[in-house]
Design goal:
Blueprint lengths: L3 H12 L5 H8 L3 H13 L19 E9 L4 H12 L4 E6 L6 E7 L2 H12 L5 E8 L13
Antiparallel strand pairs: 1-3, 1-4, 2-3
Helix pairs in contact: 1-2, 2-3
Length: about 150
């Protein structure tokens, strides 16, 4: 069970993953050694999965953000496993979610531009066994993009 101090540590880390133990401890009202111990426990318990840098996709030639609905031709465990394994090997796909509803998977894809997306779609995604149909939604404007989980 998380207490107030643990929650504060997690909120602070989400805002600034590069914060020092001293700053994190001061922000949480505990000593640096107590902060180190709490953070170690939070990692061991799986609350903190990693600390990453958030990069600018435009500067890295990945300006186009696209969401794709994927409809599979069969919904069997074997097809799901094959599809999921294939998704893990495609660097353009930054998120892949199996969903309930009118389609099987929702993909979040980052590519350079529409030409790069067309190549990805034609050369990679639609050639995969099991893919029956896709629907593409190109993002015109990112209104909100956050990695923070409300705590």
């Amino acid at each position: 069970m998380l207490d107030t101090i643990d929650r504060n540590i997690l909120r602070t880390l989400q805002a600034d993953g590069r914060i020092t133990y001293q700053e994190l401890a001061a922000n949480s009202g505990i000593s640096p050694s107590a902060c180190f111990d709490r953070l170690r426990k939070l990692r061991e318990q799986g609350y903190v999965k990693g600390i990453v840098a958030l990069l600018d996709p435009t500067l890295l030639n990945r300006a186009l953000l696209v969401f794709i609905e994927v409809h599979l031709d069969r919904t069997t465990n074997n097809v799901f496993e094959q599809f999921a394994d294939a998704m893990k090997g495609m660097p353009e796909i930054i998120e892949c979610h199996m969903v309930a509803g009118g389609f099987d998977y929702l993909l979040k894809v980052r590519v350079a531009d529409m030409a790069a997306y067309r190549r990805f779609l034609g050369d990679s995604l639609t050639t995969m066994p099991g893919v029956r149909e896709t629907r593409t939604y190109a993002v015109l404007e990112e209104v909100k993009a956050s990695t923070a989980i409300p705590i």
